[in-house]
Design goal:
The complex is a heterodimer of chains A (about 300) and B (about 350). Chain A is mostly helical and about 300 residues long. Helices cover about 75% and strands about 5% of the residues of chain A. Chain A has a two-stranded antiparallel ribbon with strand order 1-2.
Amino acid sequence: MSWVNAVIQGLLLGGQYALIACGLSLTFGVMRIVNLAHGDLAVCGAYLALVLTSALGVPVWVTLPLVLPVAFAAGVVLQVLLFGRALRHGELASVLVTFGLSVMIENLLLVKYTSDPRGLPAGALGLASFHIGGQITVSWLFLTAFLTACAVLSGLQLLLSRTSWGRKVRATADDLDTARLVGIRVRPVFAGVAGIAVATAALAGVFIGTIGTFDPFQGTNSLIFAFEAVVIGGIGSLWGTLAGGMALGVTQVVVGQVNQAYAVLAVHLLFLAVLAVRPNGLFAGHRVTREAGALG
Amino acid sequence: MTGMRPTADPATGPGEPGPGAVGPGSPVAVSRWSRTATGFTGVAAVTVVVLAAVPYFAGGPAEAPLITLLTFVAMASQWNLLAGFSGLTSFGQQAYIGVGAYGLYLVAAHGVNPFAAIVAAAVIAAVVSLPVSVLVLRLSGGYFAVATLVIAAVFQIAATLSPSVGGTTGVSVPGLAGYEPVLREALIYWATLAVAVLSVAGVYLLVRRTFGLDARAVGSDPVAAASAGVRVGRSRRLAYLVAGGGAGAVGALIALQTLYVEPTSVFNIQYSVYMLFMVLVGGMGTIEGPVLGALVLFGLQEALSSQGAWYLVIVGGLAVTATLVASRGLWGLASDRFGWSLLPVGYQVRSSRR
């Protein structure tokens, strides 16, 4: 029974990984940028929520209507000031610029907030849970995080497949030059995608901070987990990313039940094993290793 | 006169664009070497001799900062081979710095002289990097970059979980107790100088061969390179193995310098930040640039070390600025402005009329 419990907890944890990974996947799918500062931007979201919670004296959830627009705006600004310029210098430059940004964010957070781990107060939701059968306890907070991830992924999927803006995004992702040729203004599309990516990262950061703790250097680890979810799920597939996140989460919790010290190592080894055996991911049908396919 | 830019070379394909392309009566001459290069090589040789003599005339106070500087030079040159020439932006070279440091410990613990163990550590790191390269070279660009971070994390956790190398607390480097402190410091200094000189000269000699042309072609456009007959996989693998072995040697030096090997310090991502900074600010894809970048980082560290985390904020910010504003770094700016090429990699076309 405890193993079933571990699998369920792992699946729920996978939702959090997918939530942070979907922005990474989206940015790469559309702009061909692997944003190495993505995890750090999530951590910034958590710090912003922390500052607002204590300044306004309101629960964490109430700060979201402020955090998410700020994160969206930050994404737009970063795209215009940094990522867009970097892309004009080629893919190599975008890798270098986002890594430099990651270093800057981590150390600015260190200067401002020290390296002490912080947590966001979850309120009543943090303690509430319900039971299935005898031994399985599900935390409402974990379930909320998982359902939020599913909602965000569904929303993104609908946005991309059903709206005219989504059509522009997919056209741009498929072929930038042709998209320009048929009259799509690419820069606003890029700015919107960057905004959404950072907003989803910030949302994930708030959940990370509510469920556990965070510190200035957490971002690199978050980036690695998100990246592993994307690769295991198959680059370019949003639902694959959720499946990849769940595979990570289950591995982490089940191995952690045996020996906590090996939990993270097991996740990395799962990623390396997938890279060795099925480099296109477990859930993607087409070949995408060198040149990632379109979204959807 | 125009020094051929690295990106211009792949257009000519993997064949050597030798002097044969220009006839004897032609008004232009194509050459690789120049009088400036001869002069500079002389200056460089004298500098190395003077540096080698430092322990005799200056001693410890001069050795300590020079050891830091020379370690920077070695790291920058090696990372330049990866990122600058081959387009492989690894942010996980600390994996091999760690392997080298632990390799030195393990070899020295078996009674081998710790200075001889530097070579063994480099070989161990290169051997370890071979199976890793099979995995990570399946990816490219940003995905390759994050995969190298995963490798570094795996190695760090593995070291933490191994009681035989001290787990989280780490181990002291054995075999150095028999040396007089002055002699030990001088030996560490000479070893660092040797690794730095070998790194710069090794990368230079390597990229002057066909490998250099192949690597730069692959770095600019792997598909075009492959279609021109370059063996993309082999070229990238060679760069990765050489850089891994070099990082192993640097790791062994760091273990000797600090006398202690601890997972959180030898696997620190800060090494990658430094490499990125030195190569970007100095000038990517040139031989001179990373050395210049090492000098800049060294100066910056001296000036800002009291600033704590702000130091790294500035380092990151300057690296970003260099990428966006001067993508060929300080050396690129200088060589564009003055036409300098002290250690030419490409070929130069100049008028033979006087």
